Amino acid sequence: MENQTILYMLALSGLSDLPSLQLPLFLVFLLVYLMTLTGNLLIVLLICTDSHLQTPMYFFLGTLACLDIGCSSVTTPRLVFDFHRQNRLISVKSCICQIFFFVFFVISELSLLAVMSYDRYVAICHPLHYTQIMHWKACVLLVLETFVISVVYSLIHVLFLLKLTFCSLKPLQNFFCDLPQLLLVSCSDTFINVLLIFSLGILLAVCIFSLTFCPYIIILNTIMKMQSKAMRSKAFSTCSSHLTVVFIFYGTALFSYFHPNSKGFSAVDKFASVFYTILTPLINPLIYSLRNKEIKISLKKTLYNAIGPKPQ
């Protein structure tokens, strides 16, 4: 440590170093970001303005849309900006700040998906008591709890990151500041940081995973006992969009961090990172809007009122 120079700036490897790809990639990811903002803001707008959508299920969906905007905004603007620079430098403090918000939004989204599973469980398995159980105070408290858990989890990692020093000139092998990649370029002892990632990560993952998927065991059992085919179809319809989002998010995130070749960061790893950090927030509103009849009706009504024929 005595002969090592402490660095206050770090380098990101980015997506590609080929000059010919910089402008096309800039345009593609700028378009993706604008579409992500538009799609998620549109869902929030529809939920806020349409009284038929002001129910617990759509309250959680609107919160998910806000988290998608936040998650995308943490990584995509920086990625787009770096396409115009040869040296993708970022200060250590900015890097740690990006990690805090990225971890916060990811954990919040995972926790909210678990809350949405519970909401579907109550709606399908206890429909007569749904309004008593999922009242507005309960919904707000559930969302606030997910935020508190996410803030605490993110702060724990950030506080221990602030104690590290960085002296490696090796760039972070990603297009944003990712926690595991940041630890690899530290010249401090990172044993506590790695221990926290595994211990807190496994504890939180088991809890969130259980709360997300266990309700569906009961839900599927309840659906299979329904006598009416129409009721079964409606119940499956209300769950399919949520399950699709859950499987996409979990699948790409687990591949990024837990596949066998995770130590050597390859082009496939970067594509997986792009998918769950940038493309998933774009896909989520499409899944919910295309597979949700009430969202489509509200969207058609809004568009008709905006561009439809005006009374004489």
TrEMBL record:
Entry's Gene Ontology molecular function annotations: G protein-coupled receptor activity; olfactory receptor activity
Keywords, ordered alphabetically: Cell membrane, G-protein coupled receptor, Membrane, Olfaction, Receptor, Sensory transduction, Transducer, Transmembrane, Transmembrane helix
Protein location: Cell membrane
Gene Ontology, cellular component aspect: plasma membrane
TM ranges: 25-46, 58-79, 99-118, 139-162, 191-218, 239-259, 271-290
All copies of domain G-protein coupled receptors family 1 profile, residue ranges: 39-288
Signal peptide annotation: none
Domain of life: Eukaryota
Matches recorded under PROSITE patterns: G_PROTEIN_RECEP_F1_1, G_PROTEIN_RECEP_F1_2
Pfam families noted in UniProt: 7tm_4
Membrane topology annotation: Multi-pass membrane protein
PANTHER family recorded: OLFACTORY RECEPTOR
Family: Belongs to the G-protein coupled receptor 1 family.
Protein name stated in the entry: Olfactory receptor
Organism the protein comes from: Hymenochirus boettgeri
Phylogenetic classification of the source organism: Eukaryota, Metazoa, Chordata, Craniata, Vertebrata
